Amino acid sequence: MTTEGYNFAYLDEGTKRMIRRALLKAVAVPGHQVPFGSREMPLPYGWGTGGIQVTASVVGPDDVLKVIDQGADDTTNAVSIRRFFARVAPGLRTTERTAEATIIQTRHRIPETPLREGQVMVYQVPQPEPLFKLEPRRAETKRLHALADYGLMQVKLYEDIARHGRVGSSYDHPVMVGGRYLMAPSPIPSFDNPKMHLSPALQLFGAGRERRLYAVPPYTEVRSLDFDDHPFVPLRASGSCALCGADHTYLDEMVTDDRGGRLFVCSDTDYCGERQEQQAAERAA
Amino acid sequence: MSDWVLKAEGLSKGFTLHLQGGVRIPVLRDAGLVVAPGECVALSGPSGAGKSTLMRLLQGNYGADEGAILICRADGSVADLATASPREVNGLRRDTIGHVSQFLRVIPRVPALEVVAAPLLARGVARELALARAQALLRRLNLPDRLHALPPATFSGGEQQRVNLARGFVADFPLVLLDEPTASLDAANREVVIALIGEAKARGAALVGIFHDLDVRGRVADRVVEVLPLREAA
Amino acid sequence: MMADDEPILSARGLSLSFGAVRALDEVSIDLWPGEVLAIVGESGSGKSTLLRALAGEMRPDAGRVTYRDASGEALEVHAMGEPALRRLARTEWGFVRQDARDGLRMGVSAGGNVGERLMAVGARHYGDIRTEAERWLERVEISPSRIDDRPGQFSGGMRQRLQIARTLVTRPRLVFMDEPTGGLDVSVQARLLDLIRGLVSDLGIAVVLVTHDIAAARLLAHRLVVMRHGRVVEEGLTDRVLDDPRHPYTQLLVSSVLAA
């Protein structure tokens, strides 16, 4: 693929400006969904078109980009998006290291390595409306947000407890941002929700098909919804990583044979790899 | 205290039947009635003469075309039932006018004891006290205890009438209206009603009644007021 | 004792036209605290439109509606703005719809339906919400064992009772009811009416009840308003309007009912 004839980072400057303007508004009103004119991208909806447009609008030639899908840098979706930007954004470096990255585009995870100031998280969002399943009418959900009328969301949590005995979903668990707006954190595991709270990084969310952007500025309060007597608990499989031994990370389950054998490994491949390297170095020393 | 509890003056009442070409049926013209505290007045007259219409006017169930129905409340204030607002009428019915009709308007699923205690509860009497007084009165009227917790819908006529009587006498209304209160009672219960009326008079209540039983009427009424058909009265 | 010398709800000169049809024509009514007011009339008389105008759901062309809130402040219903109106609708007011499906969340369990208003006013203790929901299910004669069932599994009468529990759980001061017994079997109606009567008088709620059922009006209402062609043709004490009707239309309405 040649990049000739394409603007830096694929989108034309007019589109970028439009998206940046929407992002500024989103940052100014944390958790509030801002509509934007989503463009056709060279990949189908559901593959991160919203995230790609956000990344394309904020990325510069000096940036270092990391892309993860389900916590891994080497899955098809992550690899193709990283390769896409490497081609259309001359000068841009890519990395798999969280600490090195200036922009991290993600689907389904927040890295285990704590984020720092100056980093930008870009979330790919399939459904930006946290009330979507409860109230399908867009006009009505907008009104509920405007009035901060979120009793309905609490009803859903009530139903979860009544049905499953515990609060909330294992992923995309709704959060209150800055004490004002109810927000869908995108399909990250609820395990990652606390990482959003007072994060030093800027967090941007893009939903391409739904044409919505929203944001959580650095050091913003992000609270997971719960009940006094059923407090929110970030869920993880009990066990430790078979590769690095971590007992505090989010784990993926791997089936090892057809006789029920299975083991757990870190979902964050970069974090796991770093730990293994470190452990090898310590052994060598 | 006023020297009357009820003073009705210049009462006229007729009905315009719009569904029958607007025919007008006059029933009462310039009727009047004064009842003193402790007095029981019996209305008499041929059927159709307007006794029941007068009773309904005194109860606020019918609206008067002309005239005044002055009622002295327990606190000495006077209301005119003929011009009172619906809220005032409801207030008078709660605090001042007791009524024993011929037939019990049955409220589904409400037990007899509750039906009787309702006037006390409406006045804010504590529930236990209200139920206790209701029970005592029902026992006095010989309504078996096993019936107290049942809705009166399935009761016999006499049983329903006793529930109705208890409801009318359970609270100390300054004015009590009685529409054939002993019609379906046996001799023993008739005696209880006569005693209840006597006690009401003794505490200073004014009573107006239609009594078809002349023996009862003779024993309770201090005065008999004739209500005549309009042609004869005119 | 509440200050019941002032109306809780007052409407003055309400008019509303749909094209050439005058749905409301200079309608004025008052409702006092703890009072049940029934609005009767045939379909098309404007009674449901009046209810919606009173509840702020429909804006009249002319006239105004004033609500006196729990703190005694007089609020203009059609001037207060949507946020304030919604707050009112989920705190001091309630609305019981004819079709329970319009008043319930069909995808949410009975407990969630009853709990919603509690949560909307800030309840955040699951156990307490559930206990209160169970208490209210019992109060409307639904077995608490059905608390996790959805309304779709309930009969019509049960659904309507559930809607009443959901509405009354936060003890509103004023409840609007639009044909609450409409579309139910007669035996089911009687039970529901009796339940409403008991709850309303126990809780001292003011009610505006729209119904074409004269018997329901007689059982529940302190006062009656008869509407025809968008106008109030007669109003007054319930039993007086029904037993001594003056207006030709009221006489027709009463005479067409068997021993109400």
What does this structure look like?
The complex is a heterotrimer of chains A (285), B (234) and C (260). Chain A has 285 residues and is an alpha/beta fold. Helices cover 29% and strands 18% of the residues of chain A. Chain A has 7 helices and 12 strands. By secondary structure, chain B is α/β, with parallel strands linked by helices. Helices cover 38% and strands 25% of the residues of chain B. Chain B contains 9 helices and 9 strands. Chain B has helices spanning 51-59, 86-95, 112-122, 127-140, 145-148, 157-169, 187-202, 214-220, 230-233, and strands spanning 6-17, 23-35, 40-44, 66-72, 78-80, 97-100, 175-179, 206-210, 223-226. In chain B, strand 4 (66-72) and strand 5 (78-80) form a beta hairpin. In chain B, helix 3 crosses helix 4 and helix 3 (112-122) runs parallel beside helix 6 (157-169). Chain B starts with 5 loop residues before the first strand and ends with a helix. In chain B, 41% of the residues are buried. Chain C is of the alpha/beta class and 260 residues long. In chain C, helix 5 (126-139) packs across helix 6. Chain C contains 10 helices and 10 strands. Chain C is 38% helix and 25% strand. Chain C has helices at 47-54, 82-90, 100-103, 110-120, 126-139, 156-168, 186-203, 214-220, 238-243, 248-255; strands at residues 9-18, 21-31, 36-40, 62-68, 74-76, 93-96, 174-178, 206-211, 223-228, 231-237. The relative contact order of chain C is 0.17. Chains in contact: A-C, B-C. Chains A and C meet through helix 5 of A and helix 2, helix 4 and helix 5 of C. Chain A: It is an enzyme of class 4 (lyase). Chain A: InterPro entries: PhnJ (IPR010306). Chain A: Belongs to the PhnJ family.
Q: How would you summarize this macromolecular structure in one to three sentences?
A:
The complex is a heterotrimer of chains A (285), B (234) and C (260). Chain A has seven helices and twelve strands.
Number of strands of chain A: 12
Q: How would you describe the shape of chain C?
A: globular
The CA-CA distance between the termini of chain A, in Å, is: 46 Å
CATH class category of the largest domain in chain A: Alpha Beta
